[in-house]
Amino acid sequence: MNEYEEKRTSQTAYSQNRTFQSRDLSHQPQGTYRAEYIPQNRTAINRENRTVSGPRSRAAAEGRRRPDGTGAGNRPRRRVQTGTAAAQGSRRLTETGTRSASRRPPGTGNASGIQERRRRSQSSYRRDDRSPSSKTGARSGWRLEEWEILEQENEREYQEYLERKRRRQERQRREEEQRRRRRMLAIRGGGAALIAVVLIFIVYRIFFSNPVLGTVTVEAGTQEFQTESFLRKDADAEFVTDMSQIDTSHVGEQEIVLNANGNERTSTLVVQDTAAPTAEAQSSMIDIDGELSPDELVTNIEDATDVTCSFKEEPDLSSEGTVPVTVVLTDEGGNTTEIDSEVEVIEDTEAPVIDGVAPLEGFIGDAVSYKSEITVTDNCDKEVELEVDNSDVDTETAGTYDVRYTATDRAGNTAEAETTITMKEKPEDYVEPEEVYAEADEVLAEITTDDMTLKEKARAIYDWCRSNIGYISTSEKDSWTNGAHQGFTQHQGDCFVFFATAKALLTQAEIPNIDVEKSDTSHSRHYWSLIDCGDGWYHFDTTPRTGGGEFFMLTDEELLDYSASHDNSHIFDQSLYPATPTEDSTIE
């Protein structure tokens, strides 16, 4: 074979071998490997390449060289790659360098690795070039050394990858173990915290929670309170606030203090009114264009709180006649009740009537009550103003003085009455009214009850005086309080003692009474009372009479008939006292 054919055969074998290598490396991925990419074990490829047969490899194996040490096997040749094989080879070398650089420790890079390989290749090339072997053998030795280097680097990278993978798995295992431990600690800590919270709550509820309700609501008018009403659970409790001073007659809130389990607690007592008021209608009379108040058309108003009265519609009082009127009752709780009534509109020309005008007595230096026994009534007005003219009275000088009364209704009708007051020195042994009233209260507590009517109470007083006071002909008449005190303490006296004792009892029983004195004192003096139990004034005399006689609630006619037949025993000036009804009392 001539030199030309040998050269062509060598180039053909080299080209076929490079084409095989390009074809063998075409399956590798393009671009730089990532950390997770598993490098391919190219050992088999390298081994296969080393065993690939061809003109060039065989020539190298046979060691064909020129006798002078020159030839194709020893000729240094620059490896020029073109086409697809060159591109793939370049990419393979680039990727290999990149992967090696990404997996090597700091301080080593891809460029230095490539330079090292080039240095080794050039050194081997120079060594082969200096040898007397053929050119083909030199090239084969150079290729084997290059593939061994690549195989070693690949194996090293693969082992590094496996080590990184093992470390990553170990790190992941440790992290997972740490997460598992943290979860267990969190679960255990959460459970312990929950148990602690439950225990704290139980201890708080048992030993420290407030057993007293924050708010307690009661109905207006409630009088009795129990500690149980203020507790949300069983506890040893008592009121600190004086509950007897709690007023439930008005809607509102009040603070109540209790001692519960040794601690003072506060509760708010809310008073509410949910019951509507009740009342009865009553008719009324009024002058034309007079001023009418709605409360004049209702009576017996009952409610636990204060009640206000108003007209549902303002009545027309401009002309005479009967006018229907609706009165609206409203309590503090906002509850309302409507009462239908009527008013009689008239031309009022009738003057008021002044009752209870009688001679008065007073002590020098003491205040005088001029109106305590006086009552004024009118056909139209419920309340009529009473004026007292005491300008002639000298309360510092003993003597008898005139007193004048004047009453005027809304229509302008006026009534007048006169009496006298006798001022005298106070006795040294004078008994104050408060002392006498206290003695009267003790007697009333024994002989009366709250459910008794005024007439029943008056009868009980009458019977007690008749049964517990003995009659004697003399007594001290300077003061009615002294006479009453004598009756309560000594249980004896004349008519003045009977009268004074009954007066104290009637006053404390809230029975209206008027003092009556006999007008003809030439033969004897006598004292008794007029009382009003709700159906008019009647005579009331507790003094026993010789030969007997009943003087409980008599009319003027009945008393005067008895007086005429018993030496004017009860003669009196009828102009000074209100007239009694002509018939006996029918009230219960």
From TrEMBL:
Question: What Gene3D superfamilies has UniProt attached to this entry?
Answer: 3.10.620.30, Immunoglobulins
Q: Which residues cross the membrane?
A: 185-207
Q: Where is the composition biased (Polar residues)?
A: 10-31
Keyword list (alphabetical) reads: Coiled coil, Membrane, Repeat, Transmembrane, Transmembrane helix
- SUPFAM superfamilies this protein is in? Cysteine proteinases
Record has Nucleus as a keyword? no
Where does the record place Basic and acidic residues bias?
Answer: 59-68
* InterPro entries noted in UniProt: Cry22Aa_Ig-like, HYR_dom, Ig-like_fold, Papain-like_cys_pep_sf, Transglutaminase-like
Pfam family membership, one: Transglut_core
The answer, when asked if Cytoplasm is one of the entry's keywords, is: no
- Enumerate the residue ranges of region (Disordered): 1-138
Query: Where in the numbering of this chain does the HYR domain appear?
Result: 339-425
* UniProt protein name: HYR domain-containing protein
Recorded source organism is: Candidatus Blautia merdigallinarum
